[in-house]
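We were asked to recover a plausible sequence for a given structure. The inputs and outputs are reproduced exactly as logged, with field labels preserved.

PROBLEM: sequence recovery
POSITIONS: 283
GIVEN STRUCTURE:
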């Protein structure tokens, strides 16, 4: 049965009628259908709207969707089963330029549309590259990380991935702050953190790859991400889901050489050595 996560009952911020409520629909885990799936893009949007909720600009509700049995609230959007999807469920839609509710925009069901919805809040932490040179430079520094991570999983060619990580380390070294651009999360962090988490977990499991210790600025970033960033910690899916996401994306010959296969039963989240069940995490 498709489900709505705990955040639906307890929004991130207790707002008023003057702020919009946003329901973010993401694909559920294929293993435990009531839990978050491992898609890094979905986690990116959880992080972005979490920031808006922390700033009391919106209330955030998170709904996990089992594509085989989607909830009625998702089917009513008529989005052709696309995920993730963000929908303003009540309160003023920040994209609406008139007072006529009939002009309300459709649900945001593409990454570009979700980005436009996010941008409509005009939150400085979530500035887009078109409005912020710093954001543009940060996104340039991280843009090829996931592509080179995927290449490494398929071919074991580590050089491009290490180059991507070194580029991020160099960028971090130029800025005396906790995250990419600030001591607070920005949109670039929302894009980077889920991908780094996948690199660390799946890279080590399938290829024995670890992020080089000599990348000290990046290592410090990881420590802050895992130990001091509640938004990231609570948005993480279970390790098993991340590992299974890549199970069909690595060579069959590699799978036969891996001693331990990813288990369907383990719902831990490993955050720099810390493990715990995914149930009951408050948003």
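RECOVERED SEQUENCE:
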């Amino acid at each position: 049965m498709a489900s709505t996560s705990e955040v639906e009952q307890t929004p991130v911020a207790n707002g008023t009628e003057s702020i919009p409520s946003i329901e973010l629909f993401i694909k559920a885990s294929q293993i435990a259908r009531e839990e978050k799936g491992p898609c890094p893009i979905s986690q990116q949007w959880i992080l972005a709207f979490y920031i808006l909720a922390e700033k009391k600009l919106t209330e955030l509700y998170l709904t996990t969707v089992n594509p085989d049995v989607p909830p009625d609230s998702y089917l009513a959007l008529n989005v052709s089963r696309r995920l993730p999807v963000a929908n303003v469920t009540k309160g003023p839609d920040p994209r609406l330029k008139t007072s006529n509710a009939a002009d309300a925009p459709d649900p945001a069901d593409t990454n570009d549309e979700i980005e436009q919805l996010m941008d409509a809040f005009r939150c400085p932490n979530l500035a887009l590259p078109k409005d912020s040179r710093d954001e543009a430079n940060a996104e340039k520094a991280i843009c090829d990380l996931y592509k080179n991570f995927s290449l490494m999983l398929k071919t074991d060619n580590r050089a491009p991935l290490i180059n991507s990580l070194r580029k991020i380390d160099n960028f971090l070294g130029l800025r005396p702050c906790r995250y990419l651009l600030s001591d607070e999360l920005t949109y670039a962090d929302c894009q980077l953190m889920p991908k780094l988490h996948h690199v660390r977990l799946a890279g080590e499991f399938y290829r024995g790859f670890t992020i080089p210790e000599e990348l000290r600025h990046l290592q410090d970033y990881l420590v802050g991400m895992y130990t001091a960033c509640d938004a990231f910690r609570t948005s993480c899916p279970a390790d098993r889901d991340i590992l299974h996401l890549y199970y069909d994306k690595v060579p069959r010959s590699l799978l036969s050489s891996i001693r331990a296969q990813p288990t369907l039963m383990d719902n831990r989240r490993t955050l720099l050595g810390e493990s715990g069940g995914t149930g009951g995490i408050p948003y």
